[in-house]
Amino acid sequence: MKGHLHTKLKGTSLAALMAFGIAAPGTVLAEIEWLSVTVDNDLFVGEDNGYTNGIYISWWDGPEGEEKSAPGFLARWMMWSMPAAGATAIDVDIGTIGQTMITPDDITEDPPILPPDDLPYGGLLFYADTFVRAHEDYADSTSVTIGVVGEYSFAQEAQEFVHEVIDSDEPCCWDEQLDDEVVINVARGRTWKTWESDSGNADFLLTADLALGTVTSQAGAGLMVRYGRGLRRSFATALLISARTTNPVAVQTGGYLFAGARAAYLANQIFLDGSRSYDNDFDEIEYDEEIVGVTAGLAYSWKDFSLTFAINDLNVNEDDDAAQEYSEYGTLTVAWKLD
Question: How many domains does one find in the chain?
Answer without folding.
Answer: 1
